[in-house]
């Protein structure tokens, strides 16, 4: 019942807040319409030529289309009124003591005032003002409209408030512009101190507990118009929220008392009929997990107890099945650990081979260069591993593989490496073994381009594309342009060349091929291979036949396929 009260409170708060937003929107639209009318009126020819009689006729035509009781006035910057449609023609309007013209100037030409006492209409009023720019250095004027007292009350009445609900339109200082019900009593007065503290906090909208002007505890939802500063508050008496909960509590207490007394009497009678069935249930529970133990006592003589007995038997069968499944899971876990051990050995062998091959190259005699090149290759290997971890060692998308291999050269506005992958979402992805080989190959191509190729000059660019055909065959093309002229195939074959020409095609699997073209305009490489899926770990590959890759013997790559490695080669 308490949760029901909370739900009713939230529902009423949401409804009141929605109503406050709706009224606030209507107020904003009404003020914008009045401002637009004043702006049009300010452009009249009579006002430009100081024809006050003609301008008054035009202003009275506008007032005739408003709610009765509205007025339009024109005043100077010092507050002296030049015309007021609420006064007969020829009667001198009083001086306005407010600094509203300066406020209009400060807000860029239009302003909506707070509630103040109108000296002509002798009631609380608000003014919608626009600045009238005058030519030839003449002092600017302020054109204002005083809406009727009923103009804003009608906006609230159109919303058809629930009985007992209270809605108020409030200015910036917390003074009521309009109110339903009893507008005559409360318009022009400040809101209660409890709600004024909430209103002065400046929040755009919210819900708060407060006290109404009649002294009734209410839940008040409010919504403010940020550009104008006015707002709307809708109050719901808390008694409307607690009354249904109290009724439900009393009714539930009475019904619950009757049911409790009946239930106690029925339980007392039923207690004497379940002694034997419970004893039978104890025997069934004791023998359910014993395979080949004491015989099942069978039925209990009570339908409900028979259902419990069947549940016990079913539970025992599930536990036996779960135990068998647990044993199977342990066996599979041992297989997974063995596979992980195999992959770790493969990774270590690859790192060892990278170190040996880097040391055999030009960097072998320079410790700083060896550290830089070897570290960069280890980072490329780490990016391949991170990518495989991201895909949970499942096949990875070609676009992700290319971006992982070229990550140090991508990103930023000045990137000169462009990657375009035309493989759709239905194309099979690259297996883990292919991922590692491609990442290392792309790293070597980019490193060579940085040292000797297109990326060694400011004008050089590299374009990498990938596509796949209907036969699930992927093609990765590397094109360099804008770099120094290529003088043909280099005589010396470094680590990168050996990786591309010897190891890459083999690691890509059957059908893999690598074509290097040392074109004068830039190096071009075409890598083609068949996409394939990764084998599952539970295929139970015979562990005794697995040897670490790079040891010179028969090993298996990350896909579980046999690979013959030369000693010291990744």
Structural class: alpha+beta
Which spans have pLDDT < 50 for at least 5 consecutive residues? 534-570
The 3D shape can be described as: flat
Round the mean pLDDT to the nearest integer and report it. Answer: 78
- Biggest sheet features: 5 strands, antiparallel
Residues in helices, as a percent range: 40-55%
Euclidean distance between termini CA atoms: 71 Å
Compute the number of helices.
14
Rg (C-alpha, Å): 43 Å
Count of distinct strands = 19
Beta-strand percentage range: 15-25%
Major β-sheet strand ordering: 2-1-7-6-3
Topology:
Blueprint: H1 2-42, H2 45-48, H3 52-64, E1 71-76, E2 81-84, H4 100-106, E3 110-112, E4 116-118, E5 123-125, E6 128-132, E7 141-146, H5 149-157, E8 166-170, E9 176-180, H6 183-186, H7 193-200, E10 205-211, E11 217-224, E12 231-237, H8 238-271, H9 275-287, H10 303-360, H11 367-390, H12 398-405, E13 417-421, H13 432-451, E14 461-468, E15 473-481, H14 495-507, E16 513-519, E17 522-530, E18 554-556, E19 562-564
């Amino acid at each position: 019942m308490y949760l029901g009260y909370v739900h009713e409170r939230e529902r009423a708060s949401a409804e009141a807040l929605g109503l406050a937003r709706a009224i606030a929107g209507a107020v904003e639209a009404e003020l914008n319409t009045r401002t637009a009318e004043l702006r049009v009126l300010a452009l009249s020819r009579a006002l430009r030529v100081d024809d006050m009689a003609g301008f008054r006729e035009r202003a009275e035509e506008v007032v005739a289309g408003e709610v009765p009781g509205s007025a339009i006035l024109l005043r100077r910057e010092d507050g002296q009124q030049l015309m007021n449609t609420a006064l007969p023609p020829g009667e001198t309007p009083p001086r306005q003591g407010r600094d509203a013209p300066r406020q209009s100037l400060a807000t860029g030409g239009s302003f909506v005032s707070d509630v103040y006492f109108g000296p002509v209409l002798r009631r609380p009023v608000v003014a919608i003002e626009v600045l009238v720019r005058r030519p030839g250095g003449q002092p600017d004027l302020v054109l204002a409209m005083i809406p009727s007292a009923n103009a804003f009350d009608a906006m609230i009445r159109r919303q058809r408030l629930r009985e007992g609900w209270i809605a108020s339109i409030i200015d910036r200082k917390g003074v009521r512009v309009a109110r339903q019900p009893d507008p005559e009593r409360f318009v022009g007065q400040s809101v209660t101190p409890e709600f004024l503290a909430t209103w002065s906090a400046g929040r755009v909208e919210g819900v708060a507990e407060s006290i109404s002007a009649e002294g009734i505890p209410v839940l008040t939802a409010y919504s403010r118009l940020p550009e104008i500063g006015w707002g709307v508050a809708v109050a719901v008496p808390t008694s409307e929220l607690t009354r249904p909960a109290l009724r439900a509590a009393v009714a539930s207490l009475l019904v619950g008392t009757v049911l409790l007394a009946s239930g106690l009497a029925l339980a007392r009678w039923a207690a004497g009929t379940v002694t034997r069935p419970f004893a039978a249930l104890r025997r069934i529970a004791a023998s359910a997990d014993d395979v080949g133990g004491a015989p099942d006592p069978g039925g209990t003589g009570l339908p409900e107890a028979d259902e419990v007995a069947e549940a016990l038997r079913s539970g025992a069968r599930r536990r036996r099945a779960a135990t068998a499944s647990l044993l199977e899971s342990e066996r599979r876990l041992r297989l997974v650990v063995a596979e992980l051990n195999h992959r770790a050995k493969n990774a270590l062998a690859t790192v060892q081979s990278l170190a040996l091959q880097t040391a055999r190259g030009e960097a072998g005699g320079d410790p700083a260069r060896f550290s830089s090149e070897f570290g960069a290759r280890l980072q490329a290997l780490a990016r391949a591993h991170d990518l495989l971890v991201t895909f949970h060692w499942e096949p990875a998308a070609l676009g992700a593989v290319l971006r992982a291999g070229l990550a140090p050269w991508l990103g930023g506005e000045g990137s000169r490496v462009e990657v375009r992958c035309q493989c759709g979402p239905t194309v099979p992805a690259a297996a883990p073994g292919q991922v590692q080989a491609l990442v290392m190959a792309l790293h070597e191509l980019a490193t060579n381009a940085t040292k000797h190729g297109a990326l060694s000059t400011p004008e050089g660019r590299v374009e990498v594309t990938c596509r796949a055909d209907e036969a699930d065959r992927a093609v990765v093309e590397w094109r360099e342009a804008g770099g120094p002229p290529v003088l043909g195939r280099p005589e010396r074959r470094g680590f990168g060349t050996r990786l591309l020409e010897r190891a890459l095609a083999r690691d890509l699997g059957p059908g893999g091929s690598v074509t290097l073209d040392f074109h004068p305009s830039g190096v071009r490489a075409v890598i083609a291979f068949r996409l394939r899926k990764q084998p599952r770990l539970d295929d139970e590959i015979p562990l005794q036949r697995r040897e670490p890759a790079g040891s010179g013997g028969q090993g298996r790559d990350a896909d579980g396929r046999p690979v013959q490695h030369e000693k010291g080669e990744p």
